[in-house]
Design goal:
This protein is an alpha+beta fold. It is built from three helices and five strands. A three-stranded antiparallel β-sheet has the order 4-3-5, with no helix packed on it. A two-stranded antiparallel ribbon has the order 1-2.
Length: about 140
């Protein structure tokens, strides 16, 4: 939310950088910026995360919600289920003769340019390597 605030009301820094303006907003809402996720870490830079400031605005607001029975339920996928893997948009093809690789859509048919002989020789079709999805 501090990133969105900075984009709309502040001065956005270069991509992925956390500057003093962002750090000040984080502290205002009760989150301490830190490169280590612990006290003593730098407040600015490329890889900055945070921890909750005890007694800060965030901790106070959450304590009120928790007192009313509110609970956060953290989960990435429904219990007992794994998230579906994204279907590969590219497949790696390898020439069985020379080992040269190329990438294309799964149903692509490729001819190896290194092994293809003009005229009399056989055409060498590149083969799709088995994907991790089949494993």
């Amino acid at each position: 939310m501090a990133h969105v605030w900075q984009q709309t009301h502040g001065t956005a820094p270069r991509r992925s950088y956390h500057d003093r303006e962002w750090a000040a907003k984080m502290k205002e809402i009760g989150l301490q910026p830190s490169t280590t996720s612990e006290p003593g870490g730098k407040e600015t830079g490329q890889g900055v995360t945070h921890y909750i400031i005890p007694g800060g605005a965030y901790a106070t607001a959450y304590a009120k919600l928790k007192g009313r029975g509110f609970q956060l339920h953290w989960q990435s996928a429904p219990a007992g289920q794994e998230a579906k893997a994204k279907k590969a948009s590219k497949t790696k093809f390898t020439c069985p003769e020379c080992g040269q690789n190329a990438w294309g859509k799964p149903d692509t048919q490729l001819i190896c340019g290194a092994c293809y002989e003009d005229g009399e020789g056989e055409i060498c079709l590149m083969l799709a390597e088995p994907s991790d999805e089949a494993a």
